[in-house]
Design a protein that fits this description.
By secondary structure, the chain is an alpha+beta fold. It folds into 2 domains: about 140 residues, no CATH class; about 30 residues, no CATH class. Helix content is about 30%, strand content about 30%. The chain has 5 helices and 7 strands, in the order βββααββββααα. Strands 1, 2, 3, 4, 5, 6 and 7 form a 7-stranded antiparallel sheet that branches. It starts with 5 loop residues before the first strand and ends with a helix.
Length: about 180
């Protein structure tokens, strides 16, 4: 029995994207790590930035606290096999006036829905769930080839045409990389 690989963590560190993938294959837990070497598309950074209002909501912080320096630098998603409930923790930084190191912190882990029918634990806000979904899609787009300069598949096409490579070879190469 094979289970799909899922994005478990995504973080930006030193200008590079780090991604951890998890899944099960024939009763063997698989974990893989990816690290960008050639940068990432600005849409990915925008997806991380879009989580800042959710951090403020989760922590009940006013908008004037760290107004220009709050950054979401990572997300750890969780998935409960027993209940099928997903949740997440957001990893954040804020610049402190007069300090050379940022204030680093995590939000509490919040599930997207209750673990039981009669549960009443705090949940991840709806807006945060939407923003987390968009971040996950952007990370997947990165994995699929969307990079800082051009999409990997667009680069294959551009380079192929510039070098007189037949269209059929370009398409076959794109299919091979997509597989």
């Amino acid at each position: 029995m094979t289970t799909a690989i899922r994005i478990a963590k995504a973080k930006i560190k030193d200008g590079q994207l780090h991604v951890e993938l998890e899944g099960m294959e024939n009763d063997v837990e698989r974990k893989m790590s990816l690290k960008s070497l050639d940068g990432f598309h600005p849409d990915l950074q925008a997806a991380f930035d879009a989580l800042c209002p959710s951090v403020r909501e989760i922590l009940e912080w006013p908008s004037n606290l760290y107004p220009d320096s709050l950054r979401v630098t990572g997300v750890s998603w969780s998935f409960s096999e027993g209940t099928g409930v997903e949740g997440a923790v957001l990893v954040c930084q804020a610049a402190l006036e007069g300090c050379t190191s940022p204030f680093c912190f995590n939000t509490p882990h919040l599930p997207f829905e209750q673990y039981t029918e009669d549960g009443n634990a705090p949940l991840m806000p709806d807006g945060a769930q939407d923003a987390l979904g968009e971040l996950r899609r952007e990370v997947q787009r990165y994995i699929d080839g969307k990079r800082a300069q051009l999409n990997l598949f667009d680069r294959i096409e551009t380079i192929g045409r510039e070098n007189g490579i037949p269209e059929s070879v370009i398409r076959a190469t794109q299919r091979d990389y997509a597989a």
